[in-house]
Amino acid sequence: MSPPEPRPPLLQRLLRAVRNVPLLVTVGVHVALGLIAAAVIVQQTTAAKKRTFEAAPEAAAPKPIEHRLQVARRGGASASAASPVSANRIFSASPDALTLPSLPDLPSMNGGFGGFGASGSGVGLGAGTGMSTSLGGGVGLGGRGFMSLSFLGATTPNPSQIIFVVDTGTAIMAPAKGGFRAFAIIREEILRLVGKLPPTCRFNVILFRAGSSGEAEDTTDAGVELNLFRAELVPASSEAKKDFFTWMAPVNAELGNFGPGSATRSTPWKRKALPPEAGLDPLLYPPVWSRAVHAALEQQPTTVYVITSTDGVVRRAIDAQTAGRRRAEIDKARTAFNAALAKEGLNAETVVEARNRAYRKAGRELAAANKKFLADGQDPIVVAGNDQIFTAATQAELKRRGVTITLDPTGWSRADGTVFKIPEQNVANWEGASWNDFHAHLAKLQKTLLPERAVLNLFLFVGPNDKALNATENLTATAKRNGGTFQLLTTRRLEELQAREAAAK
């Protein structure tokens, strides 16, 4: 037996172990991966077993279904102090016993009234006019709550307190703007919309036109005539709607009876005193339509719709010294005019009377023509004054209908046939102011009269040939500053809106 082999030195054993480290690492990695794979398989198998289930045995009786009702109560603290609602829970043994009804289709948010109004009795709109307004259809008295309201293309979300401010001056019916038919469509649109209002909404309508009220105690009321449907906002109940239809139907519907007073009754505006801290300029003359808006803001609406035939002008009262200078200039012009007439052997008063007589004659001729138009089933031609008979638009409309009205120059013309230009007789007691002044004025009104600013939507009614660039800029800025929109309206646009509404029925 051979002797045992001697052990290698310690240094050699260490070097040999180092050379075998990669092999040991490889073996260790494979063992670890195998353990991980085994753990994953075990976990998936366990999860699959947990997801399996067996159907529960059939119950002897269905468990009662519990329906919890939460009732919202209006009225704040006073309402909460009332007796609580009993029957907080309702139980049913049948799953179908308390099935909720299907929800109605929500109204469109992009304008229109599809599905807003419920059916109801109608009120005719053409009684007593004797004119071809074609507005004899009924206006519904129904209405349900809705999410948005659309008027002449302007949409207002969640309306609650609405006032319509409507220009009823004859200028809005002038041939240049579309004639008598134009206001008939505006009237029908307002009647239709009020008929759609839900009872939860409160509304009012204010009619206005330029002119003197005759009762103004300060300059801000001068030059405007107002008529309110009601002295304050009223709920849109069936009774209020019927009253409104009767009140509004004759407005500007009969020749010779135009303006705010053509409604069935008159409710004048009684201005409320403003506190000194309101900071309004007492010498500022705002546009006529904005004075009607002032009356509307006193009733604290959430939305105001304004239809006007002009953007108006912003003016400021002049002082006595300036008024005196203007009076002197007018007197000087009149003296020169009288002297020029005297050289031709004429008297100034005689010339002025001859001119007035010529315009009165033209007015009588237009009245005779309108009588014939009505007999033939045509709309009358409406003018703001006899001098407007001789505007290009009115003369073109008369010619289209086969009527000729000329201005008689007898007694107030020169030898060559040209008429005398008679100088101004009255002194203007105002001067121009800026629209920025008016914007500040309206902002102060909003802040003083309302807890929250009312949305102001403006509509300017124009003719096809009107140049409304400046008016558009002024009214657009006003609407935007008051959270609303501005739109131009034409007779053609109104007819398109009416046709669209008729097609949707």
**Bulk shape:** globular
Which consecutive residue ranges, at least 5 long each, have pLDDT under 50? 47-62, 64-140, 142-146, 212-220
CATH architecture descriptor text of the domain at 148-316 and 431-504: 3-Layer(aba) Sandwich
What's the total number of strands?
A: 14
Major β-sheet profile? 7 strands, mixed
Strand content: 5-15%
Number of helices: 12
**C-alpha Rg, in Å?**
40 Å
What is the CATH superfamily of the domain at 148-316 and 431-504? Answer: von Willebrand factor, type A domain
Q: How confident is the prediction overall: mean pLDDT?
A: 76
What does this structure look like?
The chain is an alpha/beta fold. Among the domains are: 148-316 and 431-504, von Willebrand factor, type A domain (Rossmann fold, 3-Layer(aba) Sandwich); 320-400, no CATH class. It contains twelve helices and 14 strands. Strands 5, 6, 7, 8, 10, 13 and 14 form a seven-stranded mixed sheet that branches. A three-stranded antiparallel sheet has the order 9-11-12, with helices on one face. A two-stranded antiparallel sheet has the order 1-2. Helix 4 crosses helix 12. It is globular. Residues 47-62, 64-140, 142-146 and 212-220 have low confidence and may be disordered.
